[in-house]
Write a structure and sequence with these properties.
The protein has helices at residues 5-11, 25-33, 45-48, 60-73, 91-104, 116-124, 150-165, 178-187, 208-212, 228-244, and strands at residues 17-21, 38-41, 78-82, 108-110, 129-134, 170-174, 192-195, 203-206. The chain has an eight-stranded parallel barrel, surrounded by seven helices. It has ten helices and eight strands. Helix 7 (150-165) links the parallel strand 5 (129-134) and strand 6 (170-174). Helix 4 runs parallel beside helix 5 and helix 7 packs parallel to helix 8 (178-187). The chain has two domains: 5-221, TIM Barrel (Alpha-Beta Barrel); 227-252. It starts with a helix and ends in a 17-residue tail after the last helix. It is an alpha/beta fold. Bound molecules: 3-methyl-2-oxobutanoic acid. 3-methyl-2-oxobutanoic acid binds at residues 21, 40, 42-44, 82, 172, 174, 195, 205, 207. Residues 21, 40, 42-44, 82, 172, 174, 195, 205, 207 line the site of 3-methyl-2-oxobutanoic acid.
C-alpha cells in the first residue's frame, strides 16, 4: 500500500525508513518489488544519468520526464519529486513547478534550504514537502562536509527546525557530522533521512547509481552493493566479440524476456 506523508511521520522513532533514488521505470519497478517505501526522483539525475557537472543544469522538464517514468514503474510507492535549481525562487513559482511534478506522478516534492515562505505556501496548497538541510548541492561551492564548527552546526540545526516549523513532513540531512545529525534527529518531531549523516537519522537515502556501482565516481559515504558498470563493460565486450566472430545471434539458446515475436 502506498504510504503518505503522515505514515512517515508515524514511523519516526519506531522503524528506520529506507529511501532510494530512481530515475527510470525498470529500476523503480525493482525498488518497489523490494518493498522500499519511498523513492526520491532527485535532481542528482543530472549528474549521475545525464552527464552534467552540476545539478543546476536540471530543468523542470527533465524532472517531469523522470518522475513520470518512475511513477509508471512504481505505482504503489510514495514518490518524492525534487524541485530543481531556480524553480522554487518564490512561493508562486514554486507552486506552479510543484504542481507540475505532482501532475507527472509525484506524491510530494523536495526542496533545498530553509525557505520557510515557500514551504508554508506549498503546504497551504496541500502539497506535502520534504526539506533538505546540511550540504545543499544546488548552491554549495563544493561537496565537502559542513557543520563542523559550532557556528555552522547551530546554523544547520536552526535551518532544520525552520523547515519543520514551516510544515515539511521529512528532512533530508546531507553530509554533516554524525553527532549533529543525531542532535537534529532528536530535536525534530518529523523524520530525518540521512545521506552521509551517520546512523542516528530516522532513515537513510542512497543514490541508486551509487548503490548499484553504476558510474565512475561514488561518494565515500555511499555503499556499493554491486558493480553494475563492470557488468555493462563485460556484456558490451562479450557482445562485440560475438558479433565480430559471428557467434551472435547463432548461439542464442533461450529467450527468457517478453515474447515480442
Ligand atoms: O537529488 C538527490 O538525489 C538528493 C539526494 C542526494 C538526497 O537530493
Amino acid at each position: 500500500m502506498k504510504m503518505d506523508s503522515q505514515d512517515f511521520v508515524t514511523m519516526k522513532g519506531s522503524k528506520p525508513i529506507p529511501m532510494l533514488t530512481a530515475y527510470t521505470c525498470p529500476v523503480a519497478r525493482s525498488i518497489e518489488e523490494a518493498g522500499v517505501p519511498v523513492i526520491l526522483v532527485g535532481d542528482t539525475v543530472g549528474m549521475v544519468e545525464m552527464g552534467f557537472d552540476s545539478t543546476r543544469d536540471v530543468t523542470i522538464e527533465h524532472m517531469e520526464y523522470h518522475v513520470g517514468a518512475v511513477r509508471r514503474g512504481a505505482q504503489n510507492t510514495h514518490i518524492i519529486g525534487d524541485l530543481p535549481y531556480g524553480t522554487d525562487v518564490d512561493p508562486e513559482t514554486a507552486l506552479i513547478n510543484a504542481q507540475r511534478l505532482i501532475r507527472a506522478g509525484a506524491d510530494s516534492v523536495k526542496l533545498e534550504g530553509p525557505n520557510d515562505q515557500v514551504i508554508r505556501y506549498l503546504v497551504d496548497y496541500n502539497i506535502p514537502v520534504v526539506g533538505h538541510a546540511g550540504l545543499l548541492p544546488q548552491t554549495a561551492k563544493n561537496f565537502k562536509q559542513i557543520g563542523r564548527t559550532g557556528e555552522e552546526a547551530s546554523k544547520i540545526m536552526n535551518e532544520a527546525q525552520t523547515i519543520q516549523n514551516a510544515g515539511a513532513f521529512m528532512v533530508v540531512l546531507e553530509h554533516i557530522p554524525y553527532s549533529l545529525a543525531d542532535e537534529i534527529t532528536k530535536a525534530l518531531s518529523v523524520p530525518t533521512i540521512g545521506i552521509g549523516a551517520g546512523p542516528d537519522c530516522d532513515g537513510q537515502v542512497l543514490v541508486i547509481n551509487d548503490a548499484l556501482g553504476l558510474g565512475d565516481y561514488w561518494p565515500p559515504f555511499s555503499k556499493q552493493y554491486a558493480y553494475v558498470s563492470k557488468t555493462v563493460l563485460e556484456v558490451a565486450t562479450d557482445f562485440s566479440e560475438e558479433v565480430e566472430s559471428r557467434k551472435f545471434p547463432n548461439n542464442i539458446i533461450q529467450f527468457t524476456g517478453t515474447d515480442r515475436s
